[in-house]
Sequence to fold (650 residues):
Amino acid sequence: MSNHPTTINKVTLAGVLVSLGIIFGDIGTSPLYVMTAIVGKDPINADIVKGGISAVFWTLTLQTTIKYVILTLRADNNGEGGIFSLFTLVRRSKFKWLIVPAIIGGSALLADGIITPPISVSAAIEGLKFFNETLNTVPIVIGILCALFFIQQFGTGFIGKFFGPVMVVWFLMLGTLGTYQLSQDWSILSALNPYYAYELLRMHPTGIFILGSVFLCTTGAEALYSDLGHCGKQNIRVSWVFVKSMLVLNYIGQGAYLIAHEGQLLSSFKAPSPFYAIMPESFIPYGIVIATAATIIASQALISGSFTLINEAMRLTLWPKVSVKYPTELRGQLYIPSMNWLLLAGCIGIVLYFRESSNMEHAYGLAIVLCMLMTTTLLNFYLHLKRYNKLFIFSIITMYAIIELSFLAANLSKFTHGGWITLLIASVLITVMTVWHLAKKIRNRYVDMVKFEDHKQMLIDLSNDDSLQKYATHLVYMTGASNPGEIESKIIYSILQKRPKKADVYWFVHVDVVNEPYRMDYKVTHIAENDIIRIDFRIGFRIAPRINLMFRKVVEDLVKNKEVDITSRYESLNKNNVIGDFKFVVLEKFLSYENDLPFFEKIILNLYFFIKRFSLSEAKAFGLDSSSVKIEKFPMVIKKPKELHLKRII
Fold:
């Protein structure tokens, strides 16, 4: 069973602090740029401001509170959340096509995440323009991003302790500033009436486009669900009451300030945005520091979330195997070098292309709304599997389909303004995941399995054949056969024919990635006493398969239980109780030219093996010690070509 505390039921101060520091970074920094995007470059219009605030409030209520905090958090996979966790809960249903929304949603979340650190950090740093309007903030933003990505390799265990308290200060600052402005004009509270949002969409010619800006207030909701496993749903729900209150107060405060300056242009303000405009001038330097710290924490949460997402995709065989490191002892904290530097390159590219947060707003949100639609699709099947009332399911899914399709329509206008960048990145990620998934299905369809029973005696005879030189005392093969009674024909060929490999004990190790995120257990099958042993590891999709360490632990347990003798069989070493050598053999495949494949399958497999060049080898992916590993390459013949009719002539 799992050794991870999958569900944190108790609400604790520590849990709430962790939630504030990790869960709400993205959605919590949205006041930096949302009202700027809603007002735009036109003169301030009170109706647009009220309509925008009304739409923001009800978006936070319907989309974030009801859909994610109340409903979607119920769909936890042993305490873990996110679109891939949701997929694992429904993938065993009869609807095999559900892999499609999982791939699209995961790719869109990763793609839109590239723009989150640049827009958040830029919006915070642009507060410096209050002191110098001509200041070029691009180098400062890039410098902060480079430092942030550089420290990932060392882990964030130490600075992570300060995330919660800093975000508490941030949210209290949001609420205090908003309350101060609200006290100047209490009438702004009427904007909470949904009538103003309705009127904005019905009467104003640009209402549907403004809806695209409103959507920015809830882009962090998907990340909120993805980070569920860090602190538990109850802590998230309790802390969200505080977070939402502070966010709404700040939006209302900005609205009150804007209405007080109706008819003016935002560009005429001395402050670079409504967020900084509502601050007393003497407080702005402190506000910039706090805002910058909050955006760095928001970016850190997103980077960590991206690492987790890629790690889950690998375990679900939706992504090439890449190096995963564990810089600290904190559970769940990992570091993926390739993803880290790709994210940094993408963030720098975004900053250089858009230069200012106001320009980034035009591209932000298009991909993430696709992710939300995919989550709604999967959530529909989850609710059916859990036998919720069908009328309730129909009502809730229909409502969110309409809301999110409306947001999608509103965000489509961003395509030509830079939204194409995130969609292009998402398309590349979708292609990689699709190719990886389809190639695995094609390969599995043509894998040649043989019955173990038909070859068991041959292995025993080979082990006792004195005419052969011993290849290893213990010979270990990684097998993909889930049935203990079967084995790949290529493994048998490797042992018996490709230089016969005599060993005292043959070990066959199978790794099964299961839906439970932190499960770690194993099963031992003695196929032939003292000669052939099979070990089946069942590992959660968030656990790195460190087979070298896991195998060693299993062998220690077997020795302790006197199920196996690993002492060297060489007389001189045996009498001195020297442990025998272990040698791993890993079979790596390459696509044979001798394949008569359909055009589509040929394209998929060629792309698969091209991508595979940039991924980890099988040995490194399984965490095997390179000093004891033998790599054998063999051609993958999936579909043999038609028989050649050669005629012999004399």
Notes: DSSP finds 27 helices and eight strands in the chain. Residues 474 and 582 are 5 Å apart (CA to CA).
